[in-house]
Amino acid sequence: MKGKSPSPLELVKLCCRALDEKKAEDVRVLDVSEQSSITDYLVVATGTSDPHLRALRVELEKAIDASGTRILGMETVQDSGWFVVDLFDVMVHIFSPAVRERYGLENLWKDAIEVSVPKLLAAPKASRPRSPKRVSAARKPVKKRSKK
Questions:
Q1: Mean pLDDT of 94-118
Q2: What secondary structure, in 3-state letters, does the chain show?
Q3: What pTM was estimated for this model as a whole?
Q4: Which of 17, 21, 28, 37 is 20–30 Å from 45 (CA)?
């Protein structure tokens, strides 16, 4: 996506796809645009171990870089069980299970609107071109006779 930066919702989709491809667990998206002055969306997910958290971070960085989006900040403290990626309109929080439960980030944003991740990940249905009807040489269509 060189040239034009993705919209905030496109960026959320991109992050969710990257996390889904690396098997992040319990991915949730919260629209906090009405509650927050610093971001529009929060993406929250869980990694199962420290190596899994690192793999999620690397995959996320690759996807963001490929989109041409600038990462404004990234907070990663080794073995903390939590990292944050600031993309201005989108903030991504990836936790270990214990750290996610301890901080309960989603509970701080109870008034936010939850966005359906399965709908975000669903690929748009491609319309298949219809093939023309074939008339076999052995059988020609029969014209209906009109009743008089």
A1: 92
A2: CCCCCCCHHHHHHHHHHHHHHCCCEEEEEEECCCCCCCCCEEEEEECCCHHHHHHHHHHHHHHHHHHCCCCCEEEECCCCCEEEEECCCEEEEEECHHHHHHHCHHHHCCCCEEECHHHHHCCCCCCCCCCCCCCCCCCCCCCCCCCC
A3: 0.78
A4: 37
